[in-house]
Amino acid sequence: MTAICDVRLGGRRMAMRLQLTAGLEVLESWAETASQAERNVVYEALFAVGDGSAFLVYDIFGDPRDPGHFIVMVKAGLAMKVMVRRADSAFEIRYVGTVEDGVDTAAAAQETASPE
């Protein structure tokens, strides 16, 4: 598990607050067909990414092919991919949906559809 917001200050681990700066259209598109329960758990996960507590609550995996990109396992079968820009204290939503739909495939399609 990789901590998204892990920084070290004086030898202690500290969580960094991150601001959502892009990707709302990805979230809105997914939310159109999601149940209220699914939307609620994804929104909770987004707040956890933003306040730095996500690594305490969720399984999070770094993408070795895409530094700065992380997959957050929201619940069984449901994931989101975020891109973290630590220098800007910001993150972007890259994908939200089922694992079966393919996190990498869907996120790659989104990245080619909209410039960074």
Compact overview of the structure:
Helix content is 34%, strand content 34%.
What's the Cα radius of gyration?
14 Å
The residue fraction in helices comes out at 25-40%
Shape: globular
Query: Low-confidence runs (pLDDT<50, min 5 residues)?
Result: 1-14
The share of residues in extended strands comes to: 25-35%
Cα-to-Cα separation, first versus last residue: 26 Å
Largest sheet, in brief, is: 5 strands, mixed
Strand order of the largest sheet: 3-7-6-5-4
SS element count, helices: 4
The total count of strands amounts to 7
H and E string: EEEHHHEEEEH
What is the multimeric organization of the chains shown? single chain
| Mean pLDDT rating | 78
Structural class: alpha+beta
Any chance you could write out the topology, listing elements then pairs?
Elements: E1 6-9, E2 12-15, E3 19-22, H1 24-31, H2 36-51, H3 54-57, E4 59-62, E5 69-75, E6 78-85, E7 90-98, H4 103-113
Parallel strand pairs: 3-7
Antiparallel strand pairs: 1-2, 4-5, 5-6, 6-7
